[in-house]
Amino acid sequence: MALEEDDNTWILDLETALLDDCSADILYSISKGKNIPECLRAEVWQVCLDVQDKGNQLVLFNEIFDLPEQNLLRDDCQKVVANLGNEDEDKVSVVSDIESILTFYCKSSGVQYEQGNGWIEILLPLISLKLPRSDTYNLFEAIKHRYIPRGCKKNGVVFHVFRLLLLYHDPELCSFLDTMRISPDLYCLSWFQSLFAATCGLPVGLCMWDLYFQKADPFFVFFLALVMIVNAREQILSMKNDSKQTLVDTLSAMPCALEADDVTDFCSLAQYYDLKTPSSFKETLVDTLFSVVSTEEDTRAASISQALCLPVTAHELVNNAAADQDPATECVRFFLVDCRPADQYNAGHLPTAFHLDCNLMLQEPAAFLTAVQGLLSAQRQALAARSAAGGEHLCFLGSGRVEEDQYTHMVVASFLQKHTHYVSMVSGGYKAIHEYFGKDVRASLEDHNPQSCVICSPDSTGEDLDTGRTNSTSIDIFGKISAAMKLKSAEVKGKLFDYIVNPTGSSNTERHVSSSDKLGKRYRSLAPVFSIDDDQEGGQLKLNVCHPVDSTSVASPEEDEHQEVVSISTWLNKPEVVMSFKCHEVKVNGYMYDSHLLVTDSHVYVLRDLPGKRGFAHIVVRRPLSAIVKITSKKKHPELITFKYGVPEGEELVISDMDR
């Protein structure tokens, strides 16, 4: 009896706290993750969502149901409520409440109801609290604004962010789903739209929301979704021979298996993954995803979501190295890998950095593999010694300059291809580190030499990379590219590329990459790149260039808005342009876009014409000629030309990407 009284003491403390105008943090410290008693749940949620003093907003509702989509809304309400176990009289009341709340929300917020957007599913747990309609509305509005990520739609930024999180914690599982062309929006859209209410039973949903609202972290839904997938990894990987739709259906229904008793452990696991994720990733995105933001912040979120791997800020990296953390505590500890060229590393680096020259990967593959083994050995030793430089989490550092970072991306991609856990990259590279230290840079960096440092003395290295011109006047594109490659000096490097490798490492597996994804590889000791089945006739060529698109990041109008817009005539008249061709860009879905293909002595570009903006275009392809390992054309379709790219694997070459 005494033990039972002790067990219920926290409930009395909770009741007292509610009377004393407490906060969500205080409530969480009292409940310690326990389920809230049904009699206190409504009051606890109102405190956690800060709506206890909100008042009756529905007094502004004129009770006129005249939305353009009113019939659709009413039908959806009736269909959902018909499946509930309530009496018929109760069902009529519930339908009335839901339709009134959603109609007023649409009118007051200036938004349109869409079928399947999760709003009705959010309202059902709230209706079960049996509060006055006005209080239910206040709770719904707070949940919608605080906890439902912006852009919860097919191919939305939210799901690219979730994929980065999955790639960080379980790269093999992420690679498998990518190979199956199953992007997160196909299976977890309803999870994010309704905070799992659409797929979990009501008792489970109530228990989960008890913890969720007390934790008061909107980003927590990402970790809940992550646990749901990672915990089922063996089942998912065993379904490699099943159809895509079967796998999607299985993934989508996974929350249905949760029971109320599982919720505490489920949320504890999510908390564990939260602690094992670089905090700056969440901090950078939380305001963008869960509040009204500017176009600039939207652009930043889209940029982060399309990153090769999980981005980390310079601020977190530096503070992480300086922090005195208990090795027994679950947290993020970085092992920093500086991938800049040796001359840049020697001109200044962080004291804890392990140097891995990214140029070795292409120039000396055997030496690169040896260096990687040395890196992994050093990491194990640092972890065993509990050194400040030791950590499970590999964080790669580039220069922050586009001409070098294409090779850093290749190094990072090689680790991802091997399914290495906890791979991240410093946003902005060494440049961001340098700017973070500011005036203290000399005291903070090891061996810093202002005369040789590319940030302190940007003129110390060549910046104009696309200079020079071939004298050839042939209009044969293959001749032009061949001449350009032969004339290319060893120092010339390309622009920025997001290097994405085929996760399976197989050239036979079709893979999609986004239009912003790039792949770079230096042309070195390989078989001839030109493999053309038909002889090309003289005269103007009309090329069809096709770019496979990543299943997790299919090109969308939202992405196009963030691509660089350039003047076509300015680019065509650049002195470094060897030859240009009018062509069509052909997407995998069959759509064709008027475009221009440009060849310089070091790069090939595709400019996609902007409809409605005559004379301007997006740069959709920007690749170094050194990345090309094969150029082919089929006899049946001589106008379709394929550019193939690859990476070295020992003595072999793996074709990892292509443009057609």
From TrEMBL:
Annotated compartments: Golgi apparatus, trans-Golgi network
GO process annotations (BP): retrograde transport, endosome to Golgi; vesicle tethering to Golgi
GO annotations of cellular component type: cytosol; trans-Golgi network
Source taxon at top rank: Eukaryota
InterPro entries for this protein: Rab-GAP-TBC_dom, Rab-GAP_TBC_sf, Rhodanese-like_dom, Rhodanese-like_dom_sf, TBC1D23, TBC1D23_C
Domain Rhodanese: residue ranges: 330-442
Signal peptide: none
Start and end residues of each Rab-GAP TBC domain: 35-216
Keyword GTP-binding assigned: no
Keyword Protein transport among UniProt keywords: no
Entries under SUPFAM superfamilies matching the protein: Rhodanese/Cell cycle control phosphatase, Ypt/Rab-GAP domain of gyp1p
Keywords noted in UniProt: Developmental protein, Golgi apparatus
Principal subcellular localization: Golgi
UniProt name for this protein: TBC1 domain family member 23
Organism, scientific name: Timema monikensis
Lineage summary: Eukaryota, Metazoa, Ecdysozoa, Arthropoda, Hexapoda
